[in-house]
Amino acid sequence: MAETLIDDGTALAIVEGRHGDPFSVLGPHKRDGKWRVTAFVPGADQLWVLTGTSGQATAATHWGQGLFVATLPRKAAYRLRATGHGTTWEFEDPFRFGPVLGELDEYLLGEGTHKRLWQVLGAHVITHEGVQGTHFAVWAPNAERVSVVGDFNIWDGRRHPMRRRGATGVWETFVPDLGEGATYKYELRGPGGQLLPLKADPVGFGSEHPPANASVVRTISGDFHDADWMAARGKRQTVDAPISVYEVHLGSWRRAPGDRMLSYIELAEQLVDYAVDMGFTHIELMPVSEYPFDGSWGYQPVGLFAPTIRHGTPPEFRAFIDAAHKKGLGVLLDWVPGHFPTDAHGLGQFDGTPLYEHADPREGFHNDWNTLIYNYGRNEVQNYLVSNALYWLEEFHIDGLRVDAVASMLYRDYSRKSGEWVPNRDGGRENYEAIAMLKSMNIVAYGESPGVMTVAEESTAFPGVSRPVNHGGLGFGFKWNMGWMNDTLSYIEKDPIHRKYHHHLMTFGLHYAWSENYILPISHDEVVHGKGSMLAKMPGDGDEKFANLRAYYGFMWAHPGKKLLFMGCEFAQGAEWNHNQSLDWHQLENPQHSGMQALVRDLNRAYRDTPALHVNDTRPEGFEWVESNDAEASVYAFVRKGAPGDAMVVALVNMTPVDRRYRVGLPAGGEWAELLNTDAAVYGGGNRGNLGGVTAEEVQCHGRPWSAVVTLPPLSAVYLKQGGLA
After folding, report:
1. Of 708, 721, 559, which Cα lies nearest the Cα of 625?
2. Rounded to 5 degrees, what are φ and ψ at 506?
3. In terms of DSSP bridges, do strands 562-566 and 518-522 run parallel, antiparallel, or are they unpaired?
4. 150-167: per-residue pLDDT in tens?
5. Which is catalytic among the residues 187, 357, 404, 617?
6. What's a Gene Ontology MF term here (predicted)?
7. Average pLDDT in the 307-317 region?
8. Distance of CA 616 to the CA centre of its chain
9. Whether residue 404 lies in the annotated active site
């Protein structure tokens, strides 16, 4: 009788989905000297175990409610055949397969030191014990039971419960005959047996199209054709290299007919070709890790390992990166390890406990963004984040990561009032655990992926952000210069008649310019939330607005520091950015807008092709003031220097609408060619300039033995290059 083959209490726990160790019951087991196969097949009335090449059938005894037990004469590989509701079907029994994860994986997972977490967790299409299928593994140490559910098992958590892997907190199972494109989530019973909301895979490689949010089995392996780029990229991403970044939101850069978002394949041609033509060295993608809400722009990610399906699949994303590299263009990703959203299918209370986040909202909740904060002090969480950074660098050949909102991670009291935060062990405000995670991320990124660059968006004076970890720093390659951005925008927005009273907003950045490896950022944050577009910030009317912006860009590209410009700013889009629609490309029909685009293109090329403008972006020997105190005229003049023997460049900026004949001291005699003039007609200016250049005279000025009288058009920047333009 079936009652003697399985304990009733055990059987009931299986059919009710309560059993915490289903692999100890289901599948083949030797009991009382006999091999028995126990199978749970809801909806089946009869079940047979098929063994041997001929498929010899052994009838199973039905305990009830879809639970069957069969006794075999010997241990053997088998399949199952079931009948029910007038249908017969055959299938592999997932419970006959052994574990996939090995002892070393278990050890590293338990220790929280598995650098390549994505290779063992998540959903992987594999051949296991001679059968094709998908291996699932997920970390949920406090769950009483974890199941994988999807269309393949009618979202029934009783059908594919997973195997607990010892003390690691990891659960795994192999689902035979399941492959690419299958949708799935995890069903978890938390402590006390409560059934939790279905969870997306924290290490899933794909997701459904929003607003649907199940994970999707995706293959991430594939070929690249960028060996030349990868071998040489290191020298393109150092402090000596010209780095000019085009920041892009893929969903609104340009739209396809019908207002459809462009695919990765379309972007591989259109965006890549455009950025290359414009002379940018890199594009920076606002977050592409899967996110549920379009309005977050990706900064509230749920699927950290999944390129968003909004533009295509992981292989198509890889093709996009490959296309950029083949055209000599680097790709940076915005990476968001600072917080995650509270969506029910996400990481919050993942196994019924605050697993990824802090339990205390004073440590684990961002009031500004209504998001949860990672518990960086937990080894497995730190490992999850550091491994995710390495994942993008290794699997997709990403050239660098720009880390979002670093200041919010560094300080426990970030945007919190007294009493709303928990001090560190020394009573201070620094978040030691987050600092340790960032250091670890940088060590792993630079150590495992030669030639990459990491960039911090960090708005405070935290010391050593871009200093190596072994020299006491956080280990980033570069840091956004938020102070420079705020000061210079504050200046340029003022009416020129008042600028003389704020003259040193433009010079103050040079007091700390060498304290970090800086990038000068005009990012998306400056053209949203009512701040207006870059053009709208400018004082004056019509042509004067454009002239102000041209002069500002001229100052920016001559100033020490790498460059970053948000999409649309390069052609002076009139309206502030709207993530729901394309940029206003039609404005390029206006000569002022197309002129601004031409200026940015030429600024990029001058910056890239002129060593004096980039080699010493982060070193004081690359910069000398000629005139920093002429507030009355609102004129700035400075020298940029490259390596010894490189032709020097003198930049002059006139921030008033007054045409000036200005004598300026020069660092050497001879000819000085006009390398660039933002007032050129081709840029939409008045075409006032220096007829190709000036000749230095032995007339002392600005403490220098050489000088020349230079025409400075109203609201303009002029670059003079030592010698000729060759």
Report:
1. 559
2. -85, -15
3. parallel
4. 999 999 999 999 999 988
5. 404
6. 1,4-alpha-glucan branching enzyme activity
7. 97
8. 28
9. yes
Least confident range from 50-64, 144-158, 372-386, 400-414: namely 50-64
Write the CA distances from 373 to 113, 350, 354, 370, 476, integer angstroms: 21, 14, 10, 10, 21
Instruction: Report the candidate in 335, 185, 167, 239 with the shortest Cα–Cα distance to residue 616.
Output: 239
Residue type, 151: D
- Phi/psi for 521 (5° steps) reads -105, 120
pLDDT tens digit sequence for 593-629? 999 999 999 999 999 999 999 999 999 999 999 999 9
3-state DSSP of 57-95: EEECEEEECCEEEEEECCCCCEEEEEEECCEEEEECCHH
What is the length of the chain?
A: 726
Q: Across-strand partners of 86?
A: none
In tens, the pLDDT along 7-40 reads 899 999 999 999 989 999 999 999 888 899 999 9
Q: In angstroms, rounded to a whole number, what is the distance separating the alpha carbons of residues 677 and 154?
A: 67
Read off the amino acid at residue 30: K
The residues with which 623 forms a beta bridge, in sequence order, are: 640
Q: Which phi-psi region, left, alpha or beta, contains residue 509 (left: φ > 0; alpha: ψ -120 to 50)?
A: alpha
Separation CA 551–CA 62 (nearest Å):
83
DSSP string covering 533-564: -HHHHS-SSTHHHHHHHHHHHHHHHHSSSEEE
Which tokens is 414 given?
A: 């970030």
Question: Phi and psi (nearest 5°) for 126?
Answer: -140, 170
Number of H helices, E strands in the chain: 13, 38
* Annotation marks residue 413 as catalytic: no
Cβ–Cβ under 8 Å, residues 151 and 159 = no
Task: Tally the C-alpha atoms within 13 A of residue 147's C-alpha that lie toward its C-beta.
Answer: 27
Maximum alpha-carbon separation in the chain: 113
Q: What's the first-to-final CA gap in the chain, in angstroms?
A: 95
C-alpha to C-alpha distances, 578 to 125, 252, 312, 404, 535, nearest whole angstrom: 39, 8, 22, 20, 15
CB atoms within 10 A of CB 405: 20
The encoded tokens of residue 73 equal 């004469």
